[in-house]
Structure formats: structure tokens, C-alpha cells
Design a protein that fits this description.
Elements lengths: L3 H21 L4 E6 L4 E2 L11 E6 L4 E10 L8 E6 L8 E6 L7 E11 L2 H22 E4 L2 E4 L3 H15 L3 E2 L11 H12 L7 E2 L9 H24 L5 E12 L6 E14 L6 E13 L7 H5 E8 L3 E3 L2 E3 L8 E9 L3 E12 L8 E17 L9
């Protein structure tokens, strides 16, 4: 029994070494996408709680592939978005996109977007559409009231609306250099505020319905609005380029992840129980213990909290302090409860309390006591379903 702690530490070291060897051999699974059959992974359920790689054929004219993943439906915000760009116009025949781990037994929507070079005609149509929509929004926003130009939206709200117009217009296009439209400048906001500060006439009318010759003030107001329109159109045009991409194909697949078997972490370790005293007169005992751990989270998605657990179990023999023998209630062995934290993947450090019982008075009545408990254990995962492999 004196060599038991040493043997346990040796066993723990061997377990950690073997576990690291197993994990070092883990490979990222390749999940093929068949665009002709519109099928992912041959129709089988996707891997769960492990990263995987989606790959598929890359037609010669395709320069960019986007993969957007939703949980349950496209009505929700995307769970993740990944992009593959053909490198340096090389003749690559396939694309590969890395996907983060997904939860088990859940439905996911995979949306594939394929982009090719936009033609000059398509770019010209995009330019005209953006110009027309920006002008319509700006003109519809302003009216004359008394001697001022009144905006139906604040300058900040109007700028946000204009940015939404641009984003909507560009929804089928991507910049070949990976640049995205980041919004209008503060110069545009200053121009809007300048318009609202201008003093005009007492008449109330909509700018759209007035001709340029109606009055000198109306002409001045029209000039201010036109300057704002030209500024917005100019800033939007700065984003456009001759090598923009346009969506060529879109595919959507609804699939599920595999259902993983349940897991029960079993702990076998060696513990220290403090009874009383200080460092010069310490009363304690040690014993092997066994129990289970209940993780506070899934380690795949919450690493640090997933390594923490609530652990419960029993000491595998009675303890003795100051000549008194202590067992435990219910199972006649000391019971422990502790907070645990996983280290080196296979070991768990526990800190908590031990519940002890004894017949200290010698009259047959049971007396319960609690003592500080700490220990380190080897953690073994026991699967609820042995026909499936669970990867961590």
C-alpha cells in the first residue's frame, strides 16, 4: 500500500502519453460536395463535435466559393461563413473549406455560392442601378417647410438607409480583391447637415415636384440636393472595379449531424483528506478513490468551462484520524463531492469535501463529520453506445 501513490502516478503518466498519441493521429475528415447531385457527404449525417473539411469540384470559370452555414433554417443569422478564393488564377480543380465543430443531432443548412467574373454589361447595369436608387432615396427624403429644407430622416438615419441600398445592390457581387463596402464617409454626413441648415422660403412643397425655373431659392435647394446625390454616387462608385465577381450558381442543402453516444467520465485516483492541525502537527489520511464527473459544459464549444466539472464518488477504504476509524453514510465508505478541473486531457484535479461517519461515542449512534478533500485522478470515458466512435 505504501507504493500505491507511486504506481498511480506512473499509471497516470502512461495514460497521458497514450492519450496524446491517439489525439496526435486524429485526421480532419473530408466531406465531399457533389454539385450535380446537390448532395453533401453522400447524403449521410455530418460529423459532430469535430472540425471537418468540405471539398468540391471547382469549374474553370469560378473564382470564388462562399459557404454559409445556418442552424435549422436560413431565417436565422448565419452560424458561420467561409470563403475559398482561387489563388492567383491557378488551375485548381477543387475547393476546400474548413468548418468548425458542429453540435450533434442537429439540423443545419449549407448554402454554397459560386462567383465568376462579371461582364462589362453587368457592371454597367450595377452602376446605373446604384445611381438611380441612391438618387431616389435622397430626393424622397427632403421637403420644403417654411424657410428650411426638412429631412424626414436624420442625417445619421439617412446615411444608414443609403448604405443599406448599396449593400442590397451589391448582394450578388463581390470585389475580386476581397474588399467590402464599409459605408459612406463623414463628408456625406456633413453635407446632409449643411442642407438642413440652409434657409429657403416659406412655401411648403416637395423638391421632386418643382421645376428648376420656379424660383431662385428652389434652384439653390435643387443644387444642394444634386450635390449630395453626386457625392453619394461618387463614393459608391469608388468601391466598384472592373474585376468584380458576380454570382453564377447557388446551391442549398439541408442536412443533419450524427447523433453521438452519451459519455460517462469515470475517475480513479488518489486523494488527500485533511482532518485538523497545522503544518507542524498535521492530522490527515490518504486513500484511493473512484467516482464520476459531470462536466459543466461541452469542452468542444467551451474549452475552459468544459474542463471543469462537479465530481462525486467514494474513497475505496475507511480513513483513520487520531485513532478513530471513519467510514461513510449509505455505502459504508467515505463519500466525497468536489469541483474538478481536467488537466493533460486524461487527469482531473479535484478539490472539495469528504463526508465521514463514525461511532465516536461508542454508544452505537452515528456521528457525521466533514473534512477537506483534494485529489488527482485518471479520467476514463465510458460510452453509452459502443457501436459508435466518439471523437473529442
Amino acid at each position: 500500500m505504501k507504493n500505491l501513490p507511486l504506481l498511480f502516478l506512473l499509471f497516470l503518466s502512461v495514460g497521458a502519453f497514450l492519450n496524446n498519441e491517439i489525439h496526435s493521429q486524429d485526421l480532419v475528415r473530408d466531406i465531399p460536395f457533389d454539385i450535380l447531385k446537390n448532395q453533401l457527404y453522400g447524403g449521410a449525417n455530418l460529423p459532430a463535435e469535430e472540425p471537418f473539411r468540405v471539398s468540391g469540384e471547382l469549374p474553370q470559370e469560378i473564382k470564388r466559393v462562399e459557404l454559409i452555414v445556418y442552424e435549422k433554417s436560413e431565417k436565422k443569422d448565419p452560424l458561420l461563413s467561409r470563403v475559398f478564393v482561387r489563388p492567383f488564377n491557378m488551375m485548381a480543380e477543387r475547393f476546400e473549406i474548413q468548418i468548425d465543430p458542429l453540435h450533434d443531432n442537429k439540423q443545419y443548412v449549407f448554402r454554397f455560392l459560386y462567383f465568376k467574373d462579371a461582364t462589362p454589361e453587368q457592371l454597367r447595369a450595377l452602376q446605373l442601378s446604384l445611381d438611380a436608387n441612391l438618387e431616389a432615396v435622397i430626393r424622397a427624403n427632403y421637403i420644403f417647410r417654411k424657410n428650411r429644407i426638412i429631412g424626414q430622416q436624420s442625417a445619421k438615419s439617412l446615411q444608414k438607409t443609403l448604405e443599406e441600398v448599396v449593400h442590397q445592390g451589391l448582394s450578388d457581387f463581390r470585389h475580386a480583391g476581397g474588399r467590402s463596402f464599409t459605408g459612406f464617409s463623414s463628408i456625406l454626413t456633413a453635407k446632409m447637415r449643411q442642407i438642413e441648415r440652409e434657409s429657403l422660403s416659406n412655401a411648403r412643397f416637395n423638391i421632386i415636384s418643382k421645376s428648376k425655373n420656379e424660383s431662385q431659392r428652389v434652384g439653390y435647394a435643387e443644387r444642394l440636393i444634386s450635390e449630395l446625390i453626386q457625392l453619394a454616387q461618387s463614393e459608391a462608385t469608388q468601391y466598384l472595379s472592373d474585376n468584380m465577381l458576380i454570382i453564377a450558381e447557388e446551391r442549398t442543402i439541408i442536412t443533419r449531424t450524427e447523433k453521438l453516444p452519451g459519455v460517462l467520465p469515470i475517475n480513479i485516483g488518489y486523494g488527500f483528506v485533511y482532518w485538523e492541525g497545522d503544518f507542524s502537527n498535521l492530522v490527515y489520511n490518504t486513500a484511493p478513490y473512484a467516482g464520476i464527473s459531470i462536466p459543466l459544459a461541452n469542452r468542444t464549444f467551451a474549452r475552459y468551462l468544459g474542463d471543469a466539472s462537479l465530481s462525486v464518488g467514494v474513497m475505496l477504504r475507511d480513513l483513520e484520524f487520531s485513532g478513530t476509524k471513519y467510514s461513510g453514510p449509505v455505502v459504508n465508505l467515505p463519500i466525497y463531492a468536489a469541483l474538478g478541473y481536467k488537466i493533460f486531457r486524461v487527469a482531473r484535479f479535484n478539490l472539495g469535501a469528504t463526508l465521514l461517519s463514525s461511532d465516536a461515542n461508542g454508544n452505537g449512534s452515528t456521528q457525521l463529520n466533514a473534512a477537506v478533500f483534494t485529489g488527482i485522478s485518471l479520467e476514463l470515458n465510458v460510452w453509452a453506445g459502443f457501436d459508435k466512435k466518439r471523437r473529442r
